């Protein structure tokens, strides 16, 4: 996950006064999973990270740091706490379309730009700019 900062997650948990096992229990995830995230051994799934952020009274953007001017479509989705199928359902577009748009592999139609930006709560111009960054990123750079 682009921008995930394990140290921010750990610091947020510690500020909350919750132990790792207690936060894992409250969020409904495994204690070992939380440990792996906090140590940077693995990167979280967005839906599980959202549960942890909610349990901490935090936003995903408190833990996942991607400057707005560098965000790609997938970053906006992650910050909203959504998986691709969830965004597709909200925006009434296929999961395949969401994935291809996020990677810059399919054209962003007017209709899809309107639906996806609305589902994410960002302006169309912001979403289009993120899409253009995905389309024009250097070869081999993950989207």
Automatic annotation (TrEMBL):
Keywords linked to the UniProt accession = DNA-binding, Plasmid
Stretches assigned to the HTH cro/C1-type domain: 9-63, 76-127
Q: Which residues form a coiled coil?
A: none
SMART domains in the cross-refs: HTH_XRE
PROSITE patterns, A to Z: HTH_CROC1
| Molecular function as annotated in GO | DNA binding; DNA-binding transcription factor activity
Give the stretches traversing the membrane: none
Task: Provide one Gene Ontology cellular component.
Answer: cytosol
Q: What is this protein called?
A: Transcriptional regulator
The source organism is Rhodococcus oxybenzonivorans
